[in-house]
Amino acid sequence: MANITKKVSWSSRGDESGAAGEETPLLNGSEQSRPLRQMSSGSTVFQIGRLSTVDLEEEITTEEQDSVRGRPKEIPHNEKLLSLKFESLDYDNIENQLFLEEERRMSFMAFRCLEISRWVICGLIGFLTGLIACFIDIMVEQLAGLKYRLIKENIVKFTEAGGLSISLLLWAALNSFCVMFGAIIVAFIEPIAAGSGIPQIKCFLNGVKIPRVVRLKTLVVKVVGVIFSVVGGLAVGKEGPMIHSGAVLAAGVSQGRSTSLKKDFKIFEYFRRDTEKRDFVSAGAAAGVSAAFGAPVGGVLFSLEEGASFWNQMLTWRIFFASMISTFTLNFFLSIYDNKPGDLSNPGLINFGRFESEAMEYNLYEIPLFIAMGAIGGGLGAFFNFLNYWLTIFRIRYVHRPCLQVIEAMLVAAVNATVAFILIYFSTDCQPLGPDQSEEYPLQLFCADGEFNAMATTFFNTPEKSVRSLFHNPTGTYNSLTLGLFTVTYFFLACWTYGLAVSAGVFIPSLLIGAAWGRLCGILLASTTSTASMWADPGKYALIGAAAQLGGIVRMTLSLTVIMMEATGNVTYGLPIMLVLMTAKIVGDYFQEGLYDLHIKLGSVPFLHGEAPATSHWLTAREVMSSPVTCLNRIEKVGTIVDTLSNTSTNHNGFPVVVQVSGDDEPAKLCGLILRSQLIVLLKHKVFVELARSRLTQRKLQLKDFRDAYPRFPPIQSIHVSQDERECMMDLTEFMNPTPYTVPQDTSLPRVFKLFRALGLRHLVVVDDDNRVVGLVTRKDLARYHVGKHGLEELLLAQT
Amino acid sequence: MANITKKVSWSSRGDESGAAGEETPLLNGSEQSRPLRQMSSGSTVFQIGRLSTVDLEEEITTEEQDSVRGRPKEIPHNEKLLSLKFESLDYDNIENQLFLEEERRMSFMAFRCLEISRWVICGLIGFLTGLIACFIDIMVEQLAGLKYRLIKENIVKFTEAGGLSISLLLWAALNSFCVMFGAIIVAFIEPIAAGSGIPQIKCFLNGVKIPRVVRLKTLVVKVVGVIFSVVGGLAVGKEGPMIHSGAVLAAGVSQGRSTSLKKDFKIFEYFRRDTEKRDFVSAGAAAGVSAAFGAPVGGVLFSLEEGASFWNQMLTWRIFFASMISTFTLNFFLSIYDNKPGDLSNPGLINFGRFESEAMEYNLYEIPLFIAMGAIGGGLGAFFNFLNYWLTIFRIRYVHRPCLQVIEAMLVAAVNATVAFILIYFSTDCQPLGPDQSEEYPLQLFCADGEFNAMATTFFNTPEKSVRSLFHNPTGTYNSLTLGLFTVTYFFLACWTYGLAVSAGVFIPSLLIGAAWGRLCGILLASTTSTASMWADPGKYALIGAAAQLGGIVRMTLSLTVIMMEATGNVTYGLPIMLVLMTAKIVGDYFQEGLYDLHIKLGSVPFLHGEAPATSHWLTAREVMSSPVTCLNRIEKVGTIVDTLSNTSTNHNGFPVVVQVSGDDEPAKLCGLILRSQLIVLLKHKVFVELARSRLTQRKLQLKDFRDAYPRFPPIQSIHVSQDERECMMDLTEFMNPTPYTVPQDTSLPRVFKLFRALGLRHLVVVDDDNRVVGLVTRKDLARYHVGKHGLEELLLAQT
């Protein structure tokens, strides 16, 4: 999410959109302070006036202007802003005449075939996601093994020579090099690939168009980036990026073409619209979760929890299919890689190991303890988010150049290595090297022969393996001091790491922090009670701690419970994990939002939550709508359309289409809705009434023309319209959506919100008793209301 | 579902609603063939005419009349009818002035408290559902143990004396007695408690009001009934009824009162409306599944798959909470009952036992075999449904008297015992009695000492235990002949049993049939291949067979996969089970619908599926809407309202409210929507304008008055309105919903459908360009379109 926020900083500093920024610093302000530009044929464009002015909004306008004038160089608190630069996706089908004609032509068999294609695509998505997960896993393992061997040889050599500082240097240099490479490709090639990508996918599924988020380039950078960040020893996981990767794959596969590679397979053309694409992206995200955690059901629930608003049985079933195929593919190929073909015991990238029910029972009286741990997790999570929040603000202000970002990433890698080395140096936690050693990379270092340094092992292993060791290693493998020091160090390192310009996830570091302090809790409990046998297994507490910490940071609920259940392969722990996650969420929410929501807010994204704020019944559509609305006539002059689209001060995307009835004095009635993208295609193909009459157009415009242009519609500036053509007329009847959803002015905000969210709308027309357009509700009009500390608050809209 | 269909038969025979049936045999027909009744003040009731007549519908009218005239005594195929007697539930909030005022008065803290109450209620629902499951389990075990001891003693006594026929008689008599008791309470006290209740709950969640389905009496009859049917040795399970029980509990607990017991706790009054009640009933159904199968996630998915249309994150999380509490409660109390407190290994009523991953691996080449088994399951399931369908039709026609139903149930019980006895008598499948015998009730019968009769054991055990044995017993426990005979017999017995007037589920019989033929497949495969070791475990095939058979009968998909995964505690089998269920569904759907859908259809319930039929884009709101619509003025004469409500020929439930603008010649514009139930409360409290002016009313009508009357609003006949009062006026402004959702006439059916389903609407007003009412879309208008063999078909509407 760092890039979104970065953009905010750039544009405020006048680097990119300075000109636009000066002219129209804030939309609201501009609308009310200056008269609107006169169009060349202004009389045909209806500017339907605002019927009522709300006091609240005037106050805001003043505040906004103050903030812009008072501190033009300083960035206002971004989470109080809602950026106007984000466009929405259309999750409502545009049922215009072309579309209906096509649908009516289709036979029942054709719909069957479409349904089968959907299944095939979901299968493909699952398969490819599984393959990518497999690739990441194998590459990380190979490179990490290489690094380990290099360093170990070096340590062995120099421990005898006494020059351990050289080992440290080598270690730090190797890590920094890896991270540098990972950071360079992210910072210079595709900044949107930074982080886990989960906030971006959440936004996409919610209906916000995040530029470049589902492109092939993003996928490549993401995958290569995550390999190098993990090998570089950063406190990151390779699970989060899988979700983003699955989503990108889904967006690509479902369209049957790659715009980046300029390759069109001419298949799946029916799916080239936002509604269908979203469905597949949900499946991709689910497949990603499934491959990451071996949790197909958890993946489905993740997709539903984060994205979908309308429950569709067939869609869910397809998502589940993609998830299953994904985990199965990963499992199958990893079993071949491990030379145990057919052994399907690695369903995910992370494997928590099997918790045996008998060994891991819990008692009723332990539940309060678990809940207390949940509260600790919530508190620590909120602290983590709080630190990361300020760090992100700092980064937005000062670390926004790509080269600075690369340097920061390298610095983190070097510090990581140094801190680890210091801890190892002072650690005295030597453990015997058993024959059935679960650690893959034991380091003897300063320990006696036949022993290994527990601290070193924890740092040298991949975080996934450390989590597993903390869950399953027998009692006494770690001493309290090691765990305590490790928790504190790793907490700050992980916090610093999240938000760097590297592709990396926060799941595993969170689990690791939680597992460490959870195990510590278990050890301390065992030492305080006399009946030690009851508390014998600290692994149980490590699991609860991991859940609490992760829940405290990301605040996921249902899906996380199921993911944890599936990853541990144990249903018994469902109830405690659920209680812990619930407590962590309640406690955490009291202090601070979840990490993903925080970054979405910092990006000023107009994100719509599941329900309207509780106390928003006193607001009605009249108050929230944007007004005046630029309307178009059903048969409109080309010049007017071009001018309307070229108007950078408004930059509207949807235009109600109206018809003038009888006399000129009577206002026009709503008869449809047309989108900017549709108008652009019409202009590009010069679908003018005069041309149609003179038979100059060879063929009727078809749905295919719109699909070919999707999703990268050209800007209006690239379309040349001659002066003669400006005088032509365009007939929008066939292309507009003739039945847009409308609400009366008195509809309450929750009711508008429910309609908007349930149907995935982009524009909702507000009409009066006579079906005349009085306003338009868009995403930002709804997203700006939220419940703050002082009741209902309104975010400012900013043209960032 | 049998009772709904039964009703159809009664009314067609003129027992109940003969008079109404003669007067208005079919709504559509009556409207077009006769002039509408003249109201006493007809001029103020707007009968807005139908704008276009569709040819299709005229044809149907003719067909309908033919069918009624041609064979008045014969029942038409019920699945081609849609009954008009079912009312809908209001899952859209009625946001009238009263409601909005209340919401606006509420502080943020008040909303918090409401949220907390919701959680408390869900916890309670889970707890009570768990308790009920526990009660059923313990009672069944005690009574079955008693029965077993009685019969065993008897057999031991008479085997020596050679009079086995007396044993048979005793067995049959015992079973018949139990079943008789179970059938009597169902048939005579509460017929809606028959069957599993799943179709009814599906309908409720879908928005159809099934009378008496969530009453306390239903719950008591259901619970007692299921105990006696299971003990009576019928081929039934106790799992299905748990879902219904949970739903009833939820409906009761969430309302804070019991109308049957006339006890109002004055709590949770805010939740006394359909929207909130539905949410809790979802939670109850999920808790029921969770307790039945130990599958909390499966429960949530079941609720979502069957009921919810709008995905709400907080709601889902609450549902999950209820599920977790439910399985935990059951587990905890059963562990106490089993004298192993704290041992949480019985999460559900049925326990499939633990499948160890190592022993139960599958290979890639087995997947085609699994898919083939899925196809067999689908075919057998369709055959099962086909037989049951004709049986149900037969029952509707001839077995509709309660005493006949009881006799049929007793007959089934007796035949059950006889067939089992015959099979046991001719069975030669004697198995050694091992020391670690998993069978609880081994019967030696005609076997040598130290051995037991496998067939007898299969019949004597509860079906749950038999399923477990088929899954886990070592190779060679059953021989092929036993399994084959058992499958065939049990198949027909189970088919005959489903639909009897007893409270019983079809899950376990289906699983048992499937497990039997699945195990048979495993044995046959092992015998045909030389490398026997590969196919050594027939338990694996039993599991797949069970899934296939159950999937073939009920056609559940996602939730069933998760339920099977959770019940087996094994994630590895997720993919094969999913593939099997998918195949079973595809194959089964080719022949016949799922059992629950079939019974819903036989009940002529206007059930709305997830999506509109694929080829319905050529239909628009104009064609599907009901027209003319009875509208009311905003300030309406009491007499008119009473007459409108008393009009039994239309029996409308929602009335658009209109205002007359300027001249009388101009038609009226829509300004709101009011429900019959609201009007009745208004009439009851005599909220007349004249009374308000003369200060005769002590207080303003409040939301509480509506809530107190909910959900059993009195009929209009019970409200006395004097001749003077008829001349009074009523002001509906405050009570009507001022912002009903509307669509233009040209909106396509899928678009109308999506709006209707996503928002859980009951009435959708169709307006013209000037916002004048032209029609009303209700549930039956949408539910009657479905994809049949010859493309899109339309069901007939019948006043049954």
- Percent in strands of chain A: 5-15%
Widest sheet: strand ordering of chain A? 1-9-11-12
Poorly predicted tracts of residues of chain A: 1-76
Approximate shape of chain A: elongated
Helix content of chain A: 55-70%
Major sheet attributes of chain A? 4 strands, mixed
Query: In oligomeric terms, what are we looking at?
Result: homodimer
What is the residue-averaged pLDDT of chain A? Answer: 80
For the secondary structure, the number of strands of chain A is: 19
What can be said about this structure in brief?
Chain A has about 800 residues and is an alpha+beta fold. The first copy, chain A, is built from 31 helices and 19 strands. The first copy, chain A, is about 55% helix and about 10% strand.
Characterization of the model:
- 2 copies of one chain form a homodimer.
- By secondary structure, chain A is α+β, with helices and mostly antiparallel strands.
- In chain A, strand 17 (785-788) and strand 18 (791-794) form a beta hairpin.
- The radius of gyration of chain A is 29 Å and the shape is elongated.
- Helices cover 56% and strands 9% of the residues of chain A.
- Chain A has 31 helices and 19 strands.
- At the A-B interface, helix 5, helix 12, helix 13, helix 21 and helix 22 of A face helix 5, helix 12, helix 13, helix 21 and helix 22 of B.
